[in-house]
Amino acid sequence: MKRRDLVPAAACSLLCFMVLCGVAACGRSANSSAANVVASTSSPASPVVQSPSDAAPPADQTGGFDGAAAYDFTAKLVAFGPRPPDSPAIRQTQAYILAELKSFGCPVDVDDFHASTPIGDLAMKNIVVKIPGSERGIILLLTHYDTVRIPGFVGADDAGSSSGLMLEMARVLCSAKERQPNSVWIAFLDGEEAQVVQDGVAQWTDSDSLFGSRELAASMDLSGDLKRIRAVLLADMVGAKGLNIREDPGSTPWLNTLVWKTAARLGYQSVFIPSSNGGVEDDHVPFLRHHVPAADITEFPNYPYWHTTQDTMDKISPRSLAIAGHVFLEAVRELQQGRR
Question: Which of 113, 138, 174, 188 has the most CB atoms at less than 10 Å from its CB?
Answer without folding.
Answer: 188
